[in-house]
Design goal:
Mean pLDDT: 97
Strand order of the largest sheet: 1-9-8-5-4-2-3
Helix content: 25-40%
CATH superfamily of the largest domain: Type I PLP-dependent aspartate aminotransferase-like (Major domain)
Low-confidence stretches: none
Radius of gyration: 21 Å
CATH architecture of the largest domain: 3-Layer(aba) Sandwich
CATH class of the largest domain: Alpha Beta
Strand content: 5-15%
Bound molecules: ligand T4K
CATH topology of the largest domain: Aspartate Aminotransferase, domain 2
């Protein structure tokens, strides 16, 4: 039987992609903000409902260069229940991450604890819309306003989502999206920043293109983080199908919820009011004492049948060996508790309903007592 992995890249038909890249082949123009780059940028503005968007090589560079573009110094309040990228972007900018615990229902920043972590060295808040769950935007913005802090959302998981009818990329000073192969919308590798202040956009543009303003004009020291034409072309194709893909994901999530909802000892992702979801991930939190089997046992039972669930996000970033014990994980007990018990189940548009049923069956067979 074929292996079922946690994600599977969405792809357009082969001929659709070939048609899209034909003019690149003819023109020999492969990168450096070419026609596909410009077209995708324009289409994304519309789709995401934002004023400004800058395309980049990946979601990580979106985060890293946004922090750099803001010229920040000091401490950035963030959460450890995330992919390595979020914390690394802070550290690689010479900034200090300060870890806030998460809310046990949404897995996003617990805003009750946020204000207590602010010091005179705090310069920004970097909350993560984990699994596509939207952070407590109102509270974050109220606190940021009160203390004059920048807000950069890690929106890697929230492509196409809206909150109270507004594109999720319209909140905060900036939102950083990932278009990695595993995401709801992909450009193979890719990412974008949506932002409020056009000066931030100019700075980001300089950072993604060596600070070059003309053939003989280099005004600042920048890196290279330009999205190439083949990635942009993939984005243009995938964007045509993304609504259909999200609808397919919705149906899969519904099936998971029908089969696993209400089972004692399993906690499913809470549905959020006012959010148009993209169904990016399907996390389940296992309470071993009630369910009878641990997360590890369920993980192994699935793996034995060729099903590769993932422990996103375990370990917490504040426990990474890379940081040599610098951060005290006891400050984020809820994140620690969840990270030891959560499993994200396979979820992608073409996952067959029979496979979802089989995955649920294996999980339910782990139930004891
Ligand atoms: N912030 C957050 C909150 C993030 O989650 C991420 C990325 C970022 C920032 C940074 O964005 P990027 O710089 O990556 O754009 C994967 C992804 O590589 C990563 O993008 C993602 N988060 C993270 C949650 O998941 P891994 O190490 O688990 O990937 P990997 O290679 O094990 O792939 C997972 C599964 O996806 C595979 O089992 C099969 C499937 N897959 C994978 C690849 C590479 C495909 O179907 N096609 C593919 O090409 O990190």
């Amino acid at each position: 039987m074929e292996e079922i992995l946690v994600a599977r890249s969405s792809m357009p038909g082969f001929s659709e992609y070939m048609d899209e890249i034909e003019e690149l082949w003819d023109s020999h123009w492969l990168t450096n903000m070419g026609v596909k780059h410009r077209e995708l940028q324009k289409e994304l503005k519309e789709y995401l409902g934002v004023e400004n968007v800058e395309l980049l090589t990946n979601g990580h560079m979106a985060l890293e260069l946004t922090l750099q573009a803001m010229n920040l110094q000091g401490e950035v309040i963030t959460t450890p229940f995330t992919f390595a990228s979020t914390t690394h972007a802070i550290v690689r900018n010479g900034l200090e991450p300060v870890f806030c615990d998460i809310d046990s229902d949404t897995f996003t920043m617990d805003t009750e604890r946020l204000e207590g972590l602010i010091t005179d060295r705090t310069c920004a808040i970097l909350p993560v819309h984990v699994y596509g769950n939207i952070c407590n935007i109102e509270e974050i913005e109220r606190i940021a306003h009160k203390y004059e802090l920048k807000v950069i959302y890690d929106a890697a998981h929230t492509f196409g989502e809206t909150y109270k009818g507004k594109g999720v990329g319209t909140f905060g000073d900036a939102s950083c999206f990932s278009f990695h192969a595993t995401k709801v919308f992909n450009t193979i590798e890719g990412g974008a920043v949506t932002y409020r202040d056009v000066r931030l956009g100019e700075r980001l543009y300089d950072l993604k293109n060596f600070g070059i303003h003309g053939p003989e004009e280099v005004d600042s020291v920048g890196a290279n983080a330009k999205m190439n034409e083949y990635c942009a072309a993939m984005g243009l194709c995938n964007l045509r199908h993304v609504e259909e893909e999200i609808e397919k994901r919705r149906r899969i999530v519904e099936r998971y919820r029908t089969r696993l909802g209400g089972v004692e000892g399993l906690r499913l992702n809470a549905l959020q009011a006012d959010v148009k979801s993209n169904y990016a991930y399907f996390p389940v939190v296992f309470d071993e004492k009630v369910f009878g089997s641990s997360r590890a046992e369920v993980f192994d039972a699935l793996a034995e049948q060729g099903i590769c669930a993932r422990k996103y996000f375990y370990p917490l970033t504040n426990t990474f060996a890379a940081f040599h014990g610098k951060y005290d994980v006891s400050h984020t007990p809820v994140a620690l508790h969840i990270s030891k018990r959560v499993l994200t189940l396979p979820l992608y548009a073409d996952l067959a309903v029979e496979d979802v049923n089989r995955i649920c069956e294996i999980i339910l067979n782990c139930r004891k007592g």
